[in-house]
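Please fill in the sequence for the structure shown.

STRUCTURE ENCODING:
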């Protein structure tokens, strides 16, 4: 009867599971090599949770000499969004998450789009029907809704199982009668699960998790013959020879049905690694990162904010392995490819997504680049988002490079740049932008802080041939000759004797030259801009406050 039923339901399916097994042979990889996959649904924008999962997939496959592939899980066609597929590809490319095979590339285990694999799923569903492990269910949506309403009232497990599975044992004649009447149906698996029995998920991240065995007759093929996610991913992961499924821990409760499907199909289950959700601290409370509330949830945010790709990747590494950050800070000459990631070092609870920590990682990242590398990274960003400053980068390249070079070497390199946007913000006083709005440029400088007379004298003694020590000694001498203490220590011994100290003069020079209270090394700023530029700005400053 089961064979006849399967032939009746799947008249057009001629390919067999045996033929598919022969076509999709096991991969020839070294022992321990992981085969991972990223399986996004093209139903919206890429978010940082997707990115985190894809990042784990890519690094674990790469470091074990395995394969990482991309599969589009588009079985829910009603929710598919135009352009979502391109957004997925663009996001992966932008964040340097390169996959070995899959959608958009060649591969021996395709098609890598689930709706194009309809015949494959139906071949396995047909086999389950042949073996009496699946059946057609003709229940209407109204009948199912009524059952669920009653189950909720009685606080029973929600779903079609046991005596609720009224079509489980239909005779062949009854099925034929339904078909003759044109009744629509789904294909459900016959769950062999027992109500009080438990199974164990040996999770690579969370360890052993005990769960109730599945008892629900889950739908495996919908009315249009397209599989559900549960059935499709089990079949695909088997045929594509996935070894490790990395996914968010919201999928943990689904493991019993996935294990059961593998058992019914005769597949060896993949290993599973369920990573913790991304969370955020707000008003002293921890909540999940939200699409609605948090702009940083979207991967597009990082591109537009000018946070460098490699800094985002480094931050993702700190999220997935608790020992990565310390390693990165201690190994200045090494990068992601030099670190060995481990599932055992991945957090089991919520993972706090901290934008300030990301910015700190970005500052460290920028501090390890050469000035030319920072400049080259800035060009495409400003070309896309700020064409005026892009032109300034081209026109005033030497000044910008000189500015970026200051305090880049040494034990404690400067860390004033966290995003590509900061390059404009921090270097504006090095460019013609300084003159666009002098009142704005000097907003942090009070006129009473500036001694015009001593600054004029400073101009007369300045020489661009002086070493930094010679430059500073000249300012000390200038201080001593004009009632300023030549050292802070002398000034503090009796402040009433002096107008200020040598540092006061330096700060006045800084204020007039840059409009800032804090900048990189003043000696080098003067070397780059020149004393003529300082003289020009002193006059502009005086004119501003006359």
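FILLED IN BY: designer on duty
SEQUENCE:
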């Amino acid at each position: 009867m089961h064979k006849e039923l399967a032939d009746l339901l799947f008249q057009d399916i001629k390919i067999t599971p045996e033929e598919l097994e022969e076509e999709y042979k096991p991969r020839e990889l070294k022992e321990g090599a992981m085969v991972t996959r990223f399986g996004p649904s093209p139903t919206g924008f890429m978010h940082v949770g997707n990115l985190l999962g894809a990042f784990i997939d890519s690094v674990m496959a790469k470091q074990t000499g395995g394969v990482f592939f991309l599969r589009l899980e588009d079985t829910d066609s009603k929710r598919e969004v135009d352009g979502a597929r391109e957004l997925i590809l663009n996001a992966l490319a932008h964040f340097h998450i390169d996959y070995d095979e899959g959608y958009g590339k060649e591969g021996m285990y395709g098609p890598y789009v689930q709706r194009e694999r309809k015949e494959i799923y139906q071949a396995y569903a047909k086999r389950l029907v042949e073996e009496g492990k699946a059946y057609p269910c003709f229940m209407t949506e109204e009948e199912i809704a009524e059952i669920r309403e009653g189950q909720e009232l009685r606080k029973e497990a929600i779903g079609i199982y046991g005596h609720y599975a009224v079509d489980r044992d239909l005779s062949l004649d009854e099925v034929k009668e339904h078909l003759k009447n044109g009744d629509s149906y789904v294909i459900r698996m016959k769950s062999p699960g027992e109500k009080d029995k438990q199974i164990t998920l040996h999770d690579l991240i969370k360890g052993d998790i005990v769960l109730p065995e599945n008892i629900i007759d889950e739908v495996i093929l919908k009315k249009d013959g397209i599989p559900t996610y549960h059935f499709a991913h089990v079949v695909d992961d088997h045929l594509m020879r996935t070894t490790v499924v990395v996914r968010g821990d919201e999928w943990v409760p689904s493991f019993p049905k996935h294990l059961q499907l593998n058992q019914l199909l005769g597949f060896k289950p993949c290993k599973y690694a369920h990573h913790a959700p991304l969370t955020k601290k707000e008003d002293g409370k921890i909540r999940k990162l939200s699409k609605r509330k948090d702009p940083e949830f979207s991967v597009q945010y990082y591109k537009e904010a000018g946070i460098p790709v490699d800094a985002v990747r480094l931050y993702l590494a700190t999220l997935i392995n608790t020992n990565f950050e310390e390693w990165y800070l201690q190994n200045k000459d090494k990068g992601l490819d030099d670190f060995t990631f481990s599932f055992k070092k991945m957090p089991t609870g919520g993972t706090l997504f901290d934008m300030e920590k990301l910015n700190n990682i970005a500052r460290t990242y920028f501090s390890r680049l050469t000035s030319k590398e920072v400049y080259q990274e800035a060009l495409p960003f400003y070309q896309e988002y700020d064409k005026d400053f892009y032109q300034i980068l081209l026109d005033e390249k030497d000044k910008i490079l000189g500015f970026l070079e200051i305090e880049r070497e040494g034990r404690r390199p400067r860390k004033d740049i966290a995003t590509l946007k900061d390059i404009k913000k921090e270097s504006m006083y090095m460019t013609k932008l300084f003159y666009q709005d002098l009142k704005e440029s000097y907003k942090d400088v009070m006129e009473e802080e500036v001694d015009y007379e001593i600054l004029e004298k400073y101009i007369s003694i300045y020489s661009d041939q002086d070493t930094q020590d010679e430059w500073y000694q000249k300012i000390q001498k200038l201080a001593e000759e004009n009632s300023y203490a030549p050292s802070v220590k002398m000034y503090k011994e009796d402040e009433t004797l002096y107008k200020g100290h040598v540092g006061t003069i330096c700060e006045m020079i800084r204020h007039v030259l840059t409009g800032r209270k804090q900048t990189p090394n003043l000696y080098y700023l003067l070397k780059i801009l020149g004393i003529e530029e300082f003289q020009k700005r002193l006059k502009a400053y005086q004119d501003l406050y006359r």
